[in-house]
Amino acid sequence: MTQRQGGKAHLGRLRWVNSDHVLAALLLFLVLYGFVIYPLAGTEGRANIFAALSFSLVLVLGVLATTKHKAVRWGMVVLSGLTFTSHWLHFYLREDAVLIHIISAAAAVLFFAALSWLIIARVFRGGGINIYCIYGAIAVYLLLGILWGEIYVVLYLVEPASFYFNPATQCDEPPIAELIYFSFSTLTTLGLGEIVPVHPMARSMTTLEALIGQLYPAVLLARLVTLYQK
Questions:
Q1: What pLDDT does 13 receive?
Q2: Which of 189, 184, 193, 190 is nearest to 214 (CA)?
Q3: What is the pLDDT of residues 116-172, one digit of tens each?
Q4: Does residue 24 carry a pLDDT above 80?
Q5: Whether the Cβ atoms of residue 52 and residue 42 lie closer than 8 Å to each other
Q6: Residue 50 falls inside a structural domain
Q7: Residue 150 within any structural domain of the chain
Q8: Nearest CA to 82 among 51, 116, 112?
Q9: Are 52 and 87 in contact (CB under 8 A)?
Q10: Structural domains of the chain, count
Q11: How far apart are CA 119 and CA 140, in angstroms?
């Protein structure tokens, strides 16, 4: 490959990263991560390395999906680095790293909150609404489910009695997959009742998530679809 061809390939990769296509890639992988990879991988055994690798890829795609502004992107790189490091430390130390797990979950909360805000800002930046803007807005909806799942994990690690689990529910320890399931059930107001928030803070977070889960698609997503021009 000549130097000119290498330069063109490099510019092509940069254009793809800085384009809206990465929003579509993020949306696709969030669907796979939230509804296929993580539930099937579980939280026990070395098979969970696949879920850990998938989480790392979500972090990478999240950074690529943020603004083109270098300072903001570097800030997201630092935040994702903290989340990545603490996540893998907890993966290898397991039960002996409750504090690291709390730090990991808290860092994930900050990262997904910042990512959601930056994608929304990108969606509503100057210019018309295209299909990738809708992809980005849907990705934020899924990010909210994962974000609240991490909030519930923090609450559980600090106070395990924050949630009541139906005795018939098979739970790992800590019940990460179950809390993410509970988060999406709350976000979509499905609420089958297997998991019940008990602590006042858990109840407040559950109510807030249910409220956002109703307003977000009804107001923001519906507005984007009406503005979309093919």
A1: 47
A2: 189
A3: 999 988 887 766 778 888 888 899 999 999 999 999 999 999 999 999 998 877 677
A4: yes
A5: no
A6: yes
A7: yes
A8: 112
A9: yes
A10: 1
A11: 7
Query: In this structure, what token pair is assigned to residue 35?
Result: 């509804």
Tell me which residue range forms the domain holding 207: 14-227
Interior CA angle at 79 toward 25 and 142, to 5°?
A: 40
- Establish if 7 belongs to a structural domain: no
pLDDT over threshold 80, residue 99? yes
169-198 burial, b if ≥16 CB within 10 A, otherwise e? eebeebbbbbbbbbbbbbbeeeeeebbebe
Checking DSSP bridges between strand 195-197 and strand 163-165, what pairing results, if any?
antiparallel
* One-letter amino acid of 53: L
Of how many residues is the chain composed?
230
The string of pLDDT tens digits covering residues 2-12 is 555 444 444 44
Please check whether residue 1 lies inside any domain of the structure: no
Report residue 43 as tokens.
Answer: 């939280």
Q: Taking the model in full, what pTM does it have?
A: 0.86
